[in-house]
Amino acid sequence: MTPGNANRTPARTFPDVCVRCATCMAVCQVSRVTLRFPGPKQAGPGAQRFRSASEASVDDWIELCTSCHLCDTVCPAGVPISELNLMAKAKFLDERGRTLRDWLLVRSDLFGELAARFSRIVNPLMKNGAIRWLLDRLLGIDQRRDLPGYEYPTFRQWFRTRPAAEDRKPEVAYFYGCFTNTNETDVGKAAVALLEAHGFTVTVPPQRCCGIPRLGIGDLRGAKEMGERNLDLLLPTVRRGIDIVFSSTSCGLMLRHEYGRLLELPGAGELAVRLFDLCEFLGRVRGEGESVVRFRPLPMKAAYFAPCHLRSLNIGLPALELLRLVPELDIRVIEAECCGLGGLYGFKKEKYEIAEEIGKDLAEEVARLQPEILLTDCEGCRMQLRQLTGIRTLHPAQLLRDVLD
Amino acid sequence: MKRWDLIVIGMGLAGLTAARTAMEMGAKVLVVGRGIGSLSLFGNTIDVLGELNPETKMESGIRGWIAAHPDHPYARTGAEGIVEALDSFRTLFPSPYAFAAIDGRNSLVPTGAGTLRPTYLLPVTMAAGAAMRREETLIVGLRGFKDFQGDTVSLHLRCRGVTVSLPRYGLEGATALALARLMDEAPFREGLGEMIRQQMAGEKFIGIPAVLGLKDPAGVLKTLEAITGARVFEIPMLPPSIPGTRIFHRFREALIAGGAAFHMGHPATGAAVENGRCTEIYAENPPLTSTYRADRFILANGRFLGGGLWAEMNRIREPLFNLPVSQPGSRGEWFREKFFQPESHPIHRSGILTDADLRPVDEEGRVILRNVWAAGSILAHHQAIEEHSREGIDIATGFLAARRALSA
Fold first, then answer.
1. Does the CB of A110 have a partner CB in chain B at under 8 Å?
2. Do B36 and A26 touch (CB under 8 A)?
3. How large is the greatest C-alpha to C-alpha distance in chain B, in angstroms?
4. How many contacts (CB atoms, under 8 Å) link A and B?
5. What residues of chain A lie within 8 A of the CB of B177, using their CB?
6. Domain match, A318 and A373 both
């Protein structure tokens, strides 16, 4: 028998595959906190049956879907619910038009390098009450949301200027993502340190924003363009037989699955088979037995949160498995489905309260566990956890790097 | 590549029970499923054998019943196996949100259709439903919540019914999950309790849709009982099921804490078989196909909704291993004339035949795959709907399959 010879399903966007069982209604984070969004069953396949390419969109609430993909993961019928939502959102926003804010936010990769260069000026400005008030009123970027600071030098600059490794070891390439590059460079440094400790020479191929922010505003054409550019930049690496790892689970989901499944970009499959989550990759390299790379004991109470896009990657919780190898680290799992930030979603004035409500449940779970440190693979979740709890929040790779023996 | 001791296919109650049992025996377990499983649909109470007369004690009654049903999955587990597996299930739910049988017998509890149904283990939030007396019961509906029609329930149960509204919260179009989340907040449940108290006319029991929170349902119950002075019970209703979601969450929490892994959202669509053993299974997550290797596999992906069985035009097949399926001779015999009738539709008796250890066998009784076991509703020769035995079969066979798989 060969893989995939069973259960052929009809066209992906065929809404009648949905049997209306309401399983998705048990996980939707948005309809759980607001009555403004009818939930995935109604918003996705339910409304899809009434949508027509030739008629104007009427469902303005479609914008409230955060694209967390949790509904897709629980559906017993394999309905691509969030994809139906995304298509409807794209059509709605194409008709209504997008705001200047949306245009700006999804291009943070372009401004990021510049903002990082002038971080000493930019960072205080972004904390300035008057400026935040203006951003709130003029652009609709909610002033209650903490904006992440920029860092200089960027990860890319740091990597370029560090001394090259002498001895040639097996090569692995790293996709760092925009946020690591300009806002959390230490995540990238930790990834490099961990990969090197496990016997690799790390390279950083040229790369662009993965494009997932553009999906957030239903800009499929823009997302496709980003995807095409990245494929041009990354395919030469995988064609040399080199694996690429990512440390951001949302960039990873975009590169590994959305380029192919959603955007149908040529070459996406070729990239996907050589693309790994950082902790997934390290877990594979370490194998089953005793690894030569050990971790020092760390007597500390930590809590791990699994981002929703990690759940969609369907690779289990590889970071948790690595964290469990740290002696004396008391690591708990936060029982919550979603942080609620939804990437740029939680920065938008009209959606801020939804993001905050979803996050409240997560914060309550954290309060119950009382950890000294929080760990999660996604930059969005880290931002949300920091703002909601005030507890030190890191990428698992940062903690693992700190306890390398 | 990682090799698991056991891969459980399916994450309904059977798969979760198998995974937990194996994990507690020290196995490294992976659970794969194409969705979250059936618990969030209709998991509420634990049926074991509802057709057994409520006068009869379950433990003794089921012995005689099994003797009369030698092909039933319960004949594989035996009465002792059922009792042991149920005890194990109950250890996962310590007080206050505990499951218990009333006096070791079946109880009749109200449903969201306004009927009474027999069941065995009840969560603490439903226990009072088994003791309710019609004339002393008030059924409370929530205005704006479409999945529970309090009027219908009270009409059919012949109780008094009221529909309360909480204007401050504006519940029009509220989902079960949204209500459960509100219940977790003290001001909401206290406000609701007060609203109910004002509507009472001396009733001693209050039936309310099963949305008493996900975090601390026993605490919500206590609040409502303290305010109303009556015994309060949840009534199961249309999906999604909040009580079932509680069961799923508890299993998932325990499994992940114990080191088991979950891969959810992509069905196992293929399997490699060598020398009568399954070596690996495949799951598609486009554009990738994931490969999972293990020493043992438990097939617990249910029947038609779960994808364990596949109804083609003229025959029913098992799509993953292509196992023989016990089924009616032709499509014409799948269904009886009327949809609702006391007897089971023959299609519901279809399923996988197994040996005494729950390993799939062919028509001659020969084991087909030496390292594959089957559990839950995919097994042949039960009528879970009419027998009221769904959860009992899931728990007892999931438990047994894991025991047998790990000792093989």
1. no
2. yes
3. 71
4. 150
5. 25-28, 31-32
6. yes
Which residues of B are less than 8 Å from A76 in CB distance?
34-38, 305-307
B177 in reach of chain A (CB within 8 A): yes
Least CB-CB distance to A333: which of B181, B239, B257? Answer: B257
| Statement to judge: residues A239 and A201 lie in one domain | yes
Could you list the residue range(s) of the whole structural domain that residue A52 is in? 15-96
The verdict on a CB contact (< 8 Å) between A22 and B238 is: yes
In a domain, A373, yes or no: yes
Per-residue pLDDT tens over the stretch B39-59: 999 889 999 999 999 999 999
Cβ neighbours, 10 Å, residue A404: 15
Q: ipTM value, please give it.
A: 0.93
How would residue B341 be classed by pLDDT, with cut points 50, 70 and 90? confident
- Per the structure, the count of domains in chain A is 4
Given CB atoms, is B36 within the 8 Å cutoff of chain A? yes
Closest to A45 measured CA to CA, from A67, A75, A5, A66: A75
Residue A202 is assigned to a structural domain of this protein: yes
Interface of B with A in 40-69 (CB under 8 A): 40-41
Judge if A259 and A192 occupy the same domain.
yes
Query: Which domains occur in chain B, in start order?
Result: 3-92+245-299+367-407 (3.50.50.60), 127-235 (3.40.50)
In this complex, the residue of A256, A313, A317 whose CB is nearest that of residue B261 is A317
Instruction: Inspect the interface and report whether the beta carbons of B34 and A31 lie closer than 8 Å.
Output: no
Mark which of A235, A267, A285 sits at the end of a domain.
A285
pLDDT digit string, tens, across residues B220-268: 999 999 999 999 999 999 999 999 999 999 999 999 999 999 998 888 9
| Residue A326 and residue A209 share a domain | no
The answer to whether residue A7 is domain-embedded is no
In Å, how far is A284's CA from the nearest CA of chain B?
7
Chain mean position to CA A215: 12
**pLDDT tens sequence across B208-222:** 999 999 999 999 999
A214 found inside a domain:
yes
